[in-house]
Amino acid sequence: MFVLTQVSIPDVFLIFFLTLGPLKALGPFAQATRGADPASRRRVARRATAIATGIVIAVALFSSVVLEQWRVSVAALVVSGSIILFCQSLHMIMETPAPAPAPREPQGAEPVPLTAALAYFPLAVPALVTAPGIAAIVAFIAIARDDWRQTGLVLMVLLVIMALNLLTLWNAEAILRRVPPPLLRVVGWVMAVLQAALAIQYLFNGLVRIGVLHPLGS
Amino acid sequence: MQVLTQVSILDAFIIFLFTLGPLNAWGSFAQATRGAGQAFCHSVAWRATATATAIVIGVGLFSSVVLEHWRVSVAAVVVSGSIIIFCQSWQMIMKPPAPAPPPLQPQGAEPAHFRTALAYFPLAVPGLVTAPGLAAILVFMAIAGGDWRQTGVVLGVLLVIMALNLVAFLKIEAIRRAPSAVLKVVGWVLAVLQAMEAVQYLVNGLVRAGVLNPLSP
Description:
Chain A has 9 helices and no strands. Chain A has helices spanning 9-20, 22-32, 38-69, 74-94, 117-128, 131-144, 148-170, 172-178, 181-210. The N and C termini of chain A lie close together (6 Å). The mean pLDDT of chain A is 83. The model of chain B is unreliable at 103-112 (pLDDT under 50). Chain A binds chain B through residues 1-2, 14, 86, 89-90, 92-94, 97, 99, 180-182, 185-186, 189-190, 192-194, 196-201, 203-204, 207, 212-214, 216-218, and chain B through 55, 59, 62-63, 66-67, 70-77, 79-81, 83-84, 87-88, 91, 120-122, 124-126, 129, 131-132, 134-135, 138, 208-211.
């Protein structure tokens, strides 16, 4: 059984893309900014991404100090992170699909003004920065330990993901116009099911680290 | 304890029947097409089933490649899939039987404007293609591994289930005449059986992972 002992860019990118990437934020952003003019939408997207970037970088830099002080092992982080990731996937899978919400305003009405608070909640948190995302950052930083090259890799991938988020939110309307909602739902489900399997794989990896599971199990 | 190392047609059929079969969708179909003409119903039935078939076959072929690329073991797929299927059964078991939905339009009123877009949402997704169904496809594709014969068995069973869905949709008038209480009871009993099957799969997954001993009773 594969046990992660070093930070690898594909693994970090995959987990961060699933937990902190644009797929989860697209729907909430489109809903929160419906009826607003393009300039306001872009402003909110920029602000939400900046806030989310600040949060994830701060978590990456300070979490290792806190967890070291609390004497939490890497294995415990991997196990807890994978459980959080699995629970989030399960929540997405079991959620009853709701019909598309009605438009906020009639055709031809004045655009709705967007408040700056929207960028903080619900966009930066919990749409962009999710609980499994935080758990993933903490786990990868713990795996990187004091190796600054590996910590740098984690931070770099985080910045790439946040740049992807910004690009996606800027083009949210165009994306949603081209992609039919049922297709988005199926993609979301498939990703959630795959994410659940990945979470269990990470749980097994964590249990191997603890010594509960044998590394040679298939 | 038996560890599933090969795709059994019966197992695949039962799980797919519960998660992707007509029991999940015929209620939505009956409700969505109430008051519509037979030609429209048939057209929607064909479109919904064709869309669902394309999705499940696509997911089946694509997912195994992704999981291999992500280095997710068969054990992890079986464990996660069985938990998802168990949770779906649990939701069905614990859900109180809902009263029949009100008709879409008052009796004697002009027929509503029916759109074929119904075939995609809510019929193909989430009526026919459900999230636990996708999890079940992943489980069986993972068990099949790279064996094309077994992969063929999974895809074949999926096609049979989709054919059953089409027949159920085309014969919706006959199903509408069946007492709804009977259908609810059948669905509820099948959900209990599905929960048991899911736990068996969970146990198989844990044996594969080395958590459980294959020889324990």
